[in-house]
Amino acid sequence: MGQGDASARSTAMEGDCLSCIKYLMFIFNFFIFLGGAFLLGVGIWVLVDPTGFREIVAANPLLFIGVYVILAMGSMLFLLGFLGCCGAIRENKCLLLFFFLLILIIFLAELAAAILAFIFREHLTRDYFTKELKAHYQGSNNTEVFTATWNTIMATFECCGVNSADDFDQQSLFRRLNPGRAVPEVCCLRNEQLMNVDECLRGNMPFRIKGCYSAVVDYFEAYIYMAGALAIVVLTIELFAMVFAMCLFRGIQ
User: Fold this and answer.
1) Other CB atoms closer than 10 Å to residue 100's CB: what's the count?
2) Angle between helices 2-48 and 212-251 (to 10 degrees)
C-alpha cells in the first residue's frame, strides 16, 4: 500500500508539473504571437507609410531587404505562436516537435542576422554617407533615386547634408552640376520673410545648419534602444519556449 501511495503521489506530482509546463508554454507562445503581430505591423507600416519613409527604404537595397525580412520573421513568429498555443493546450506531440524545430531555425537566423549587422556596421558610418553624398547627389529637382531619397531625408528631418551644408563643397558632384550654387534648394529655410532663396543658394544664410546624420540619429535614438530591448526579450522568450516545448514533448504519454 505504501508503494502504491508513493507511486500515486509521484504520478500526481508529475501531472501537476506537466500541467504547469503546459500553461507556461501557452503564456510564452502567446507573447511570441504578440511579438510576431508587432513585427508584422511595423513592416506593413513602413511599406504603406505616406510620409516618404517608404521611398527612403525602397532606394536603399539593404533597408528594402530588411523590411521584407521583418515581414517574414513577423509572419513566422505569428504562426509559430499560434501553433505553440494549440500544441500546448491539445498536448499534441507532432505540433510540439514541429514548433520546436521551426523556432530553433528562427532563433539561429536571428543570431546570424545580428552578427551580420555587426560585421557590416561600417556601411552605416558618418564617413560612408558623406562619401556617397558627395559622389552621387545631383540637386533638389533631380528625380534620380539616390538624389530623390536624400531630398526626402533633408526635407523630412529639416537638415542639410550628412554633417552640414559644408558637405556640398567644390569636390562634390552637386557643385560641378550646379555652378554658382553652394547648397541645394531643399536646404533653404522656408520663411520667406526672413530670407531670399537666391541668397541661400549662393551660400548666404539662412539655411539649415544641422546635418542629417545627427538629425536621424536623434530622432530614432529612443526607438533604437526600444528595438534592442525588444529583441533581447524576444530571444529570451524563444529560449524558454523551446525548453518548455521539449519538456512537454517528453512528458506527454
Assistant:
1) 21
2) 150
* Residue/partner pairs of 92-97 with CB below 8 Å, 24 or more apart: 93/249, 93/252, 96/245, 96/248, 96/249, 96/252, 97/249
Those residues with Cβ within 8 angstroms of residue 237's Cβ, 6 or more apart along the chain or in another chain: 28, 31, 32, 35
Q: Which helix (H) or strand (E) holds 73?
A: helix 61-90
DSSP annotation of 187 reads G
Residue 51 has pLDDT above 70, yes or no: no
C-alpha to C-alpha distance for 185 and 238, rounded to whole angstroms? 50
Distance between CA atoms of residues 248 and 253, nearest Å: 10
Instruction: List the one residue out of 82, 63, 65, 75 whose CA is nearest residue 39.
Output: 75
Q: Which three cell numbers stand for residue 16?
A: 501537476
Domain boundaries, the chain: 1-124+221-251, 127-210
Is the separation of the CB atoms in 32 and 1 below 8 Å?
no
* Cα 113 to Cα 121, 125, 179, distances in angstroms: 12, 19, 44
CA distance 100 to 240: 11
Tell me the C-alpha distance between 13 and 8, whole Å: 9
How many Å is the Cα radius of gyration of the chain? 27
Q: Is the peptide bond before 61 cis (omega within 30 degrees of 0)?
A: no
Each residue's pLDDT tens digit, 141-190: 777 788 888 888 888 888 888 888 888 888 888 888 888 787 888 888 66
SS3 191: coil
pLDDT at 193 over 80: no
Q: Which of 89, 117, 129, 121 is nearest to 245 (CA)?
A: 89
